[in-house]
User: Fold these one by one.
Assistant:
Number 1:
Amino acid sequence: MHKQVLLSALATALVIAGSSPAARAQTPGSWGSWLIGTVLLPSTAERKWGGYAEVQARNNGVARQYFYNELKAGLSYDLDKNFTLMLAGGRYATSDYRDLRAGPLSVEKRVWLQMVLSQYMSRLKVEHRYRVEQRWFAYRADSSETRNRLRYRLNAFLPLNKQTITDNTVFLSVYDEIFINPKGPVLERNRVYAGVGYQFSRRLTVQAGWLHQANYSPAALTKGQLVPQRTAAKNNVVLAVVFRLPNRTGTPASEHLPSQQD
């Protein structure tokens, strides 16, 4: 019963996201690509601490027109098998792909506190991720600003050839994530992802998928005229590689959910 309810809720979220004005306003050929490399220090049953480091590159087109990168790292603590806290930070740089030598147009530094709740059912695995972010921006024109943001992601995993996601497992991953700006617009961004992955071993997992990202700009009053909310949407091809460092101390966890840290 719980599985049917969760699957129905997730399917509904994807249908709503896919039928939204942002999705319908998508212009043909507007595809980008993301490449994500992550190194994890996994926790164990005895040692609750873990961590990760990640580098990410994004292109305006598919494997061309590089314009953006992320460098991130964090420290996690398992309160129990289903409940993990994390403190992390990162640097995010955006450039003009037509003039990379000029340096970044903007550099963002970010710190966040994250809580992850996991549900392990007979086959379906579900993850709820809650994140609070503090963000500092520096622009090339010597201006700066500070923003806060809230994020929630519902992520479901379904192993295809096994009951659990362990060695030599093919799995599906689907998620929907909303980004909330307390100052408005309330809904700042929405991401929908669907992909397939393969866990070669406890150390190596690879995922490839499609990600639709929609950004929402607030309505504004300009020269006495109301400019309505604007939406910019883009499809992306995502390739993610995760490497888990060997952990010789303690008993390894029986199953790790192959979540993307982004």
Number 2:
Amino acid sequence: MKDFKNKVAVITGAANGFGVEFAKECAKREMKIVLADIDSENLKKVDETIKAMGAETLAVTLDVTVYEQVQALADKTIERFGQVDLLFNNAGVVVGGAAWEVPVRDWDWIIGTNVNGLVYGAKAFIPTMLKQDREAYIVNTASVAGLLTSPGLTIYHTTKHAAVALTESMYYDLQAMNSKIKMSVFCPGFVQTDLHNSYRHRPERFAADPQVDPYYATESYKRTLEVARHLIETGMPIDTIANTVFSAIEEEKFYITTHPEYEPIIGLRAKNILEGKNPDVSIFNK
């Protein structure tokens, strides 16, 4: 996809981080933009910013873990703009910790957002894109955490590996039917986003309550929050990310990465799998 003017973009997770940058770049390219997020307060601010750039927008508050709300987003998009050309399945959250320590509600919340959110986006928007029978594009936000593994982020790695596999498999299916829909999977490293503040965006049914589950009061939980904060706040500046992603869309580049320094680790993991070697935590101490 190279021509963006007057086309319609839909962005989930639009109120913070990557979603804001994608929205700004869409506005610069004179697209019509649907902004969707669970954070209604920030969503309103972003909507005002994008409108001030001259773009026509539609802001929708939703929870991507609820399919009916994602389908309603698709319906509102078609009702308002009559088409959808570019979908950023971008909403994502994180909680760190060992698999056996993290409460089940966190597994449900993160899988619901990082995996089911992508599935629901596909189910809600791809049928319309197929009926349009013209060029369309989907970018699923995953992470470099979907291409490698490390200690301390079990749930996040699980969901991001699922996001990469899901996107690859869907793209195979679209190719097999000669669809005009193209796809990319966005796998950034640490970038200065708001991801470490995911807890602010928990739906009430997934609320973290230290009185109900003691994990949220443990030093282990607090340590994972601090590590996440440090890694993200010292990460790559976010202001170049949208250009990287849109360049990849223009080139129809499937894997979008941001940090070449992770490539040896990704390669080592693949090499170890092929050679039958066991995972070895000591590589993280070098």
Number 3:
Amino acid sequence: MKFQPKAIFLDMDGTILNHQNKVTLRTKEMIDELRERGFRIFIATGRAFEEIAELVPPGFQVDGVVASNGMVGYAGKDVVFKQTLPLNLVETIIEKARAQKVYYELFPYGAPRITLKQDQAYVEAEIRDPKPETVGINEWSSRKEAISERIEWKNHIEGTAFSKFYFFARTKEHINNWKKELEELQKEIDFTMSISSEHNAEVMVANVNKATGVQQMLKRFGLSEDETMAIGDSDNDLPMLKLVRYAVAMKNASDRVKEITDDVTEFTCDDDGVYYYLKEKFRA
């Protein structure tokens, strides 16, 4: 590989995270090795920042994190940038989700995700067994865990700063109808919708995505897109992959992701694809 990046951005789900929602120790050690050699390594994920610690091995460190699909960025404990969903949008979306009985999680900054108690019955019903065949095991297990441990069921919305909405449906027809509803709402209120699987959708502030987050993180470190590589697998990675000089798709990525990238890993996320790719291309 002739191109030697100064910065590498790594997606989580389907990239450094396997389908058991874990980052392996050797992936962590490869990141450590590259950072010791002067590479800047970053995470760029759709997950909330607060979720990351439980998914990675002890001692896992990177130079920065772009979380919630570009809504917030951290360098260590420093907040590099942060945006929040307006309360009127939050309230409107919850009303519409309730009308269509769409599973939702609202992510406040620095607090557990929220779903309103009046919606609990239909939200829990979406996660009833058996798992639909087309739902990924990592997404399904994350929803199971959210229902049992992560969601705080509230009587009303609490807080004023929110990083994103996450929506899920057990059928493609249901989530596709919801996406159409969101697209209609975008004609009235400007916001960004992101998709990372056939069964979900996420909502962020207008004109925000992983690419905008990557740009702000690069600026913080005095780097440019021309010095940057990114690895991802899903539709929500497309803006980031199109932005950087060298884009890599996971072997398990969708065809539309592979079509716009410069390279594809030899192995999937379940076979430590990122570890082997970084080892082959950059180990001294």
